[in-house]
Amino acid sequence: MTIPLTNINNVYFGVYMKIIVSFILAVSLICIFQVQKSEGVRIKDIAQLHGVRNNQLIGYGLITGLSGTGDDMKKSRFTLQAIYNMMTRNGITLNPDKIRDIKIKNVAAAMVTATLPPFASSGSTIDITVSSMGDAKSLAGGTLLMTPLVGADGQVYAVAQGPLAISGFSFGGKAAQAQKNHPTVGRISGGAIIENTVAVEIGKNGILQYQLRDADFTTSANMSEAINRRFGTGTAFPDNSGTVKISIPEQFRKNIVEFVAAIEVLDVNADSTAKVVVNERTGTIVMGRDVRLSTVAVSHGNLSLIIREDYQVSQPNPFADGRTVITPQTDITAVEEEGQLVLIDMYKGISLGEIANALNAIGATPRDLIAIFQAIKASGSMHGELIII
User: Fold this and answer.
1) Which residues contact 262 (CB under 8 A, 6 or more apart)?
2) Residues 6 or more apart from 190 whose CB is under 8 A from it?
């Protein structure tokens, strides 16, 4: 039996068409998945567990080993008092009436700050920052003596000590000085040992409470919906715009860490209010993607005033009986650029890029744009919050 060549071509053509359609469909699904995925953010990036937070620590200490760049004992009396207290604790007896006679140039008083992370265990180390308090010129080459670090409750949570790492220098004499960065601030990596910890209890009474870093009712509702879709209806409830309460399912009561890890990787569509942030000092303008304008006409023009002083000098002829006369002349020129009226139509909706193009067409500088945005907001045509920092 002989199969016509035309039928064979039709069969191959149909197979090819099925392959092409399948490929296009697969690419479309991938693109849709990528778009949907790109719109969402992880819960761990927009919210945090209530009570799981850092704690600030602070301490006062002495830095020794400086090469003549320490505090002036005549001006920094607190440094002198700290030296006396330290020596007394170490069994060195000094006459209190002779404290002012001590002259040391290799010691500086400093404040030590650190951050105690949650779930930190005793014996682990944290980084510390050391900053001079007195009139020390440089902390380069110095060593921080044992300094207790206390929290807001006055309890000691860590002890700091070690050589400083300074990223700057300062050298000079009476006539000139060379300096790079800030030589009076240093850092010690792992310079503090944790002695006490802050108890953190999660999952109390079978409830987890998440706090949104940027409170928003829409984001709170979307977060609850994503959790309920993953673990069942009724698991999460949006208490308000900044808090979401989650009931721990029975199968996770003994393994809360696994439950929290599963929650924090869920994607949520985070929403926010439309904002325009303006920094008048630097001329910086940042616009959110949800900023919208109603139909508005904007005109922009500059007025330049130029004042130039000239002098007309009249001198007498040689050997003539006369005197030189100087007559001042003032030339004033006023140049006003033509204002361009640009219509921004919101009838069909306008994007952020179109707003930028329309305002750039006026030829305005960033500082001019700040004034324009303020005027648009005052006219009621801007649908969003204008923040001036």
Assistant:
1) 230, 231
2) 125, 126, 127
Nearest to 192 by CA among 85, 132, 112: 112
Burial 213-234 (b: 16+ CB within 10 A, else e): eeebeebbbbbbebbeeebeee
**201 backbone dihedrals φ, ψ, rounded to 5°:** -115, 120
Helix/strand number for the chain, H first, E second = 7, 23
- Residue 32 is predicted with a pLDDT of 44
Buried b (16+ CB within 10 A) or exposed e, 334-351: eeeeeeeebebeeeeebe
Bridge partners (DSSP) listed for residue 185: 131
Q: Which domains does the chain have, with CATH numbers?
A: 55-169+180-194 (no CATH), 204-268 (3.30.1370), 276-388 (no CATH)
**What angle is formed at CA 213 by the lines to CA 241 and CA 57, rounded to 5 degrees?**
135
166 within 8 A of 183, measured Cβ to Cβ: yes
H-run or E-run covering 336? strand 325-336
On whether the CB atoms of residues 54 and 118 are closer than 8 A, the answer is yes
By CB atoms closer than 10 A (0-12, 13-18, 19+), residue 31 is: exposed
d(CA 313, CA 241): 77
- Residue 70 has which token pair? 């320490």
Rg (CA), the chain: 36
Cross-strand partners of 328: 311
Two structure tokens written together for 329: 């002349």
> Could you give the residue ranges of the DSSP H alpha helices within 119-244?
217-231
Amino acid identity of 248?
Answer: I
Q: What is the pLDDT of residues 264-314, one digit of tens each?
A: 999 999 888 888 888 877 778 888 777 777 777 766 665 454 556 566 777
